[in-house]
User: Fold Leucine-rich repeat domain-containing protein from Pseudofulvibacter geojedonensis.
Amino acid sequence: MKKSIFLLISIIFISCASVKKYENIELDLSNQNLVKLPDDILKYKKLEVLNLRNNNFNQFPKQVSSLPNLKRLFLSSNHIDSIPIEILENKELVVLYLDDNNILNFRNLKPMQKLRIISITHNPIRTKENIECLIPKEAQVLYGNEFPTIKGSDCKETK
Assistant:
């Protein structure tokens, strides 16, 4: 009887611990030499902050679009060459850091109404449109690249 109770308590403890493992709201996977995200990332449904700096991603990890509560995403110092359309699914995203990558074309992020800061310094961006016309009005873009200067009010409506 005592062994069964002990076994039952052990099973409950182990299953609670494994559920709590995915309760984190912040996850730091920086400096791990990752080339893709681990499959377990999708179990972090409450995740708000994801740090993927200084890894070896060649592509933007599309799995982040399946993290419904993500507010801050740090993908600086990788080898990412584009921003996929799936990023638009991150409706709660407020901060996006993409510094020191290989991004050539900048995607229209205007539909991301909660986005407030996007950092894209040190990317070889060749987008012809003004970056400030491709982000929500309330957002600030931080960049060290050379772009034509157009005041936000001069932006044509882009959808």
